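Rotation project, supervised by the postdoc (A.L.). Task for the rotation student: set up a whole-complex structure prediction and record inputs and outputs verbatim in this book. Inputs entered:
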Amino acid sequence: MQRTLSDIGYTTDEIALASMAKALSHPVRIRILQLLAGETCCFTGELTGLIPMAQSTISQHLKALLEAGLIQGEINPPKVKYCIHRENWNKARTLFGEFFAGETCGGCLC
Amino acid sequence: MQRTLSDIGYTTDEIALASMAKALSHPVRIRILQLLAGETCCFTGELTGLIPMAQSTISQHLKALLEAGLIQGEINPPKVKYCIHRENWNKARTLFGEFFAGETCGGCLC
DNA sequence: ATTGTTTATCGCAAATGAACGATATATAAA
DNA sequence: TTTATATATCGTTCATTTGCGATAAACAAT
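Outputs recorded:
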């Protein structure tokens, strides 16, 4: 992703898929999302108790998920309530679903 | 992913999801997969003609997709026939599908 | 045997990512 | 006002990723 990205002309969906996939590309972020998605309501704090990593590291991962749009945080200092960002979550489901649905190679023997 | 990965105890699915997501985390790899998935049969070579990147770079991306199990290559030197790896492709669809399906937060206002 | 074609690998430079400890920030509680 | 709590940010270190050109490898064609 160094020099040439613009001159390839990716579609919006390609960019969106790639950046959401990047957000999912670390197991601890998968874990965090599962924890948030499994909550019946929004979620405050206990992540640092559930995941054996430095608080600053967890915070960084949350930031990455925020920037990817997959979660949202309601700031309420000193606490923050984190949730799945439902709209983008649904969009992600759709994009990944469509992506994996398009597989037309049925006939060849390879 | 430096020091602590083992002592968190990720599940197999968490690891699998994260590594497939990592393979999808670059737009050119999304593009390549779309090209392969759109072919009615396996695909030889023309990737270098379709994607304005150095041949070595494309080869590296193909290697990444191979190692993630998302494609397969039938070596037939000097050519190689690349395909979607259907079994793992379906597994990926299932894993991502289940992942995005599990979102129970319906009630709270956040 | 030589040449051409196609793909992979190597070696490098630059960028990004991941983890941590230390510190800052912002509020509630005392 | 001071202290405690929860979270974010900074700065550092090390590892990984990305891209390229150059080169190697494997075969087909001549």
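Student's summary: Chain B touches chain A through 55 residues (CB under 8 Å).
Supervisor addendum: The helical segments of chain B are 12-23, 27-38, 47-50, 55-67, 86-101.
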